[in-house]
Amino acid sequence: MTFKQIWESGRAVLNGWLSVPAGFATELMARQGWDSLTVDMQHGLIEYGDAVRMLTAITTTGVIPMVRVPWFEPGIVMKSIDAGALGVICPMINSRAEAEAFVSCLRYAPRGRRSYGPIRAALIHGADYAQRANDMVTGFAMIETRAALEAIDDIVSLPELDAVYIGPSDLALSLGEAPRFDPVDSPVHDAILHILARAKHHGKRAAVHTGSAAYARKMVDAGFDLVTVGSDAAFIAQGASAAVQAFHGGT
Amino acid sequence: MTFKQIWESGRAVLNGWLSVPAGFATELMARQGWDSLTVDMQHGLIEYGDAVRMLTAITTTGVIPMVRVPWFEPGIVMKSIDAGALGVICPMINSRAEAEAFVSCLRYAPRGRRSYGPIRAALIHGADYAQRANDMVTGFAMIETRAALEAIDDIVSLPELDAVYIGPSDLALSLGEAPRFDPVDSPVHDAILHILARAKHHGKRAAVHTGSAAYARKMVDAGFDLVTVGSDAAFIAQGASAAVQAFHGGT
Amino acid sequence: MTFKQIWESGRAVLNGWLSVPAGFATELMARQGWDSLTVDMQHGLIEYGDAVRMLTAITTTGVIPMVRVPWFEPGIVMKSIDAGALGVICPMINSRAEAEAFVSCLRYAPRGRRSYGPIRAALIHGADYAQRANDMVTGFAMIETRAALEAIDDIVSLPELDAVYIGPSDLALSLGEAPRFDPVDSPVHDAILHILARAKHHGKRAAVHTGSAAYARKMVDAGFDLVTVGSDAAFIAQGASAAVQAFHGGT
Amino acid sequence: MTFKQIWESGRAVLNGWLSVPAGFATELMARQGWDSLTVDMQHGLIEYGDAVRMLTAITTTGVIPMVRVPWFEPGIVMKSIDAGALGVICPMINSRAEAEAFVSCLRYAPRGRRSYGPIRAALIHGADYAQRANDMVTGFAMIETRAALEAIDDIVSLPELDAVYIGPSDLALSLGEAPRFDPVDSPVHDAILHILARAKHHGKRAAVHTGSAAYARKMVDAGFDLVTVGSDAAFIAQGASAAVQAFHGGT
Amino acid sequence: MTFKQIWESGRAVLNGWLSVPAGFATELMARQGWDSLTVDMQHGLIEYGDAVRMLTAITTTGVIPMVRVPWFEPGIVMKSIDAGALGVICPMINSRAEAEAFVSCLRYAPRGRRSYGPIRAALIHGADYAQRANDMVTGFAMIETRAALEAIDDIVSLPELDAVYIGPSDLALSLGEAPRFDPVDSPVHDAILHILARAKHHGKRAAVHTGSAAYARKMVDAGFDLVTVGSDAAFIAQGASAAVQAFHGGT
Amino acid sequence: MTFKQIWESGRAVLNGWLSVPAGFATELMARQGWDSLTVDMQHGLIEYGDAVRMLTAITTTGVIPMVRVPWFEPGIVMKSIDAGALGVICPMINSRAEAEAFVSCLRYAPRGRRSYGPIRAALIHGADYAQRANDMVTGFAMIETRAALEAIDDIVSLPELDAVYIGPSDLALSLGEAPRFDPVDSPVHDAILHILARAKHHGKRAAVHTGSAAYARKMVDAGFDLVTVGSDAAFIAQGASAAVQAFHGGT
Lengths: 251, 251, 251, 251, 251, 251
Known about the structure:
With about 250 residues, chain A is α/β, with parallel strands linked by helices. Helices cover about 45% and strands about 15% of the residues of chain A. Chain A has one domain (about 5-245): TIM Barrel, CATH 3.20.20.60.
């Protein structure tokens, strides 16, 4: 299954988030009904070796494997898709040039500059992976600064770009607000809808990071193609905290 | 802090459970208010190297570190306390001889046969650890079979034994019932209260594994000295499942 | 898929062998057509944490996961099946008592003494795993000494024992010959066929470790239910050696 | 505790150095009286996953955690502080532009471009970490080339820069001398004092890597705010070599 | 032993390839007769910590250790040689400027900008490593795009560059052909020979990645100084596939 | 090189001790002049996977690799020598039966019950390893209790036993003294010399753990064949503590 296949079927993708570097935590997540799972190599405590083990854990199911890279750098982008990721989220894309530098790493020549060597991808996605890879892999450029907002049409009009991914916390910081999930009635909220509209105008997919299932549902209703809810780390902290409080009579 | 110090202060210990082999998952757990955390080397997917990393993560807080060993074997019992665990839960203690074999591993001569070399324990618990270790380390013998039930007085009257730990699932299986947490009105429930009573009669501490904060609270009210609620693995699975269902309107 | 399901379909199992502690090596093996793969924790350089990662790699395919434990010890036997192994090979079973001690670890009460907590097994094999586990898990007692040979009827008549696994190298050493794979016209060869016959007489499955596909095929024709051929480590050494020699004109 | 708090108390920081990728080596170091410890991801044999485990080991004490990144690259700088480092040493800062690129990664908007997601930092440094992070995190620009020396006023006058860190070995190489610790009466020694003077002139902190406690003490007396002495790797090599020589009568 | 010493002895280097992140797989490879082994951090599933363990495994023999870095970035190039690699292959060098940026990382001042701190290199290559390193370490610039082909004379005339390494798959993609090893009678084949000729014209060494010992031998006869054949991953897949097929009568 | 070869050359073995689970720490130790190094799986924080990496690090030199197992258990003893250890120290051997159970694990039939599969040992010690292994591998039974002292003649007269290893700390505890290295004028000191005398009387080698090079030298002069001095962990702690104190003027 790929992102494009789900989207072509007419529905949005429910994405889960992985910040804990342990294959077993990933397997627990992968059996709960997510469409895709993202290994967060940016803010999660995860290095490439962990990411490979987590992508392997995802492959025990049919869930779509995705990564967020720490920052734009061609080496880690290409290593991630060679390891089997079918989606890549790239932080802090602030201009068309940065978007182009990013997406060119996802495509083999002549459409890009991805180096050939899909060592695990070809093993798990089929012998014809190399022929199909340019269309199987989906790149998400993160729109999360005022600069990106101002360049939004330049960015989303880039032909090889598949999708944008909105990071509301950084966007809030950049717009002078406190970092926060699930904004309503605020400049950040307006910016989110504006990015969505411009992406749609140029025929691109749009994704957003959320802090609750309810907000995620609302964003899908607003037109988003992918929504992220929760994370393994958050579920541990919230579940433990709730149990401790319940024991002490706090619930 | 040690188990004995909490007990002497007149309250019960709230213990959390660790099945995910990742220091960060442990740190997330360790900041939620538990009195102690147990690294489960029996049913968790955890080997000794993982356990050391998890015990290190626990030491970033004041939470009491505990392990459950995979099975009684002197090497792993002693390695766990040398690594700094202040409590050891040992599965399947079915006779006084087994209890004695276990607890002798927790005490230096002449009270036992623990080999000297508290490499991390002395580093983190203080230069006088070796002098105090025999009283700082608490051993929990798991009572979880019909055989153990029948030998309960022999077991709990063993002077060096500190405490018993009841595993309701195995006890249920052994008594011919389905494995289950939080039994009520059943032979397993009766057995749990009987073990508690016999332990108390011999001046020993009693602990029980539970499936909910409410049942745990009830067990403390019944006289238990330590109750375990939840686990990192369960919090991930439950939190993720709830989020996915909420998104799909299932809540 | 389980061993029993393949056997009931009337064919033998082709088993591959894993000695390299790397999930990617396991994934490479798992996509080559084996029915089952065995993580060798005895002579391979593999500890439990590696084994979990390798079992996870196997689960990315439909190949049946098996382990060989280092030696009989209840802790590691039960940890392996809790981690999802559907077969366990136990070295050096030399008597009915040893066979009984081993197989009792594979069965929940009342058929055995397996402790309850199938943490990964229940996740990957289905919510009803615990109900079905006693019949899903297959135990192989290694017959590899003169003592075992002499006690063969005592061993294979044990009701809960599923199968025997013949280690020709150790059997050869024990019978005073040099350790060697694929014996013909020798006391070891005779012993292999004798063990096979006694196992079949008692309705048990029989497996044998071989050094070549041709010998393995012959053993299946002789009646064996599972044959092991090659290993990841051997394929690396043989492939590399052949390439180096071919380059230097040695082929 | 932060660097700034120690400095405001009027004393210099004694920093230790970590090159061995093992949490236990770090814990041994962390209990010997250092004010801060630096995980060297540049010349040490340490990748990000190791660094996280070592930062966790440091957190078992009150020692200030610091990292040296391999080279300036925004991803690894931000991942290090998200993991809880309170100081970052960045190699080879040779111009004001490079200094600015570096320090902007340490500050949230509007003071910089650090991406929001302090996953471990917020866990261990308190719920208000994000509000305080811009002032808690200290950036050290390494001054270690002739080019940097020539641009020293441009660099140290950068407002957001906290401190410089002098690498005497590279500075020596760049000035045409042999790499060496603890220079006296040499152009490198003069350069070190010149850098110190220019940093102080612009109100910035200055740090220097040394090879002995005596030289470190001298540098503190000269006005340095942080001095590094020794490393886990050096202590192993020196201690072992001394023991072997003593055994053979060499002492 | 270094690359230069083999070349000065008048023969070509036979290089093996490592994609499996396991020290034991590396040790198996290292005992089969290769002159050098390359840890592939680009397309292999290998991070820096794995690379260190694999370089350690190589050091158990006299085989020359080499790495391929994921992409040009000074940090990973320098970390690799600090860890003891005597050769570095850098992907996608498309201009003289890129070649210069790369090779400057391999040389201490004044010949380059390598930072001083050869932590493992000095341990294993001798106390005089730092004096000899500029000549011991060999840099291979990958020539694998049409752009590189067009700039070939600019690149190979760079004085500090030691050698070029041809990646036939990427070169084929860049020239509009399917990625493939061992080309004959094709533009890629012509390009390979052209690169070889220009390298030789400028007194530089030339290397090529091949898919078979026969083609590698042919390339040595054509004048190449280093040829790569096979990989640990390929030997596992090919060996396992052949065994399975042989068992099923497919051979 | 083996222990026996050194002893036959007429000199004692200087053994170093490894408690830090990091290959690099081991490589640092291995280059300082020790005859042998022991990976301590008992009191060190080391699991089997760490031990394999440390044994690999030792193999980069000619130093003799040894392990101390956590406790007597056939699986870990055999795994250690399959991984290439040429010496095994086994804790707490208190009777001839225990000694026999231990040493039988070190010998192939008919001299013992070691299972065949020297996967790394045969790779690194030569193709004829299996033929020579019974004489290459040296077993050290730890004598460290009053019970062992009382059974000393029974133990050291066991033909297959190679050597005893005295643990002064545990011996002191068992004799009612405080655990301490380097005893003089005490019952422990007398016991050490008595064990030495009985071992020599039966033609066996004797080893002792010491806390200083001076005491070690004295023990060699007294007739000991192997002495252990220091450890990687101790060198870190002592070196760091000395540097910190020197900085603060404490020296």
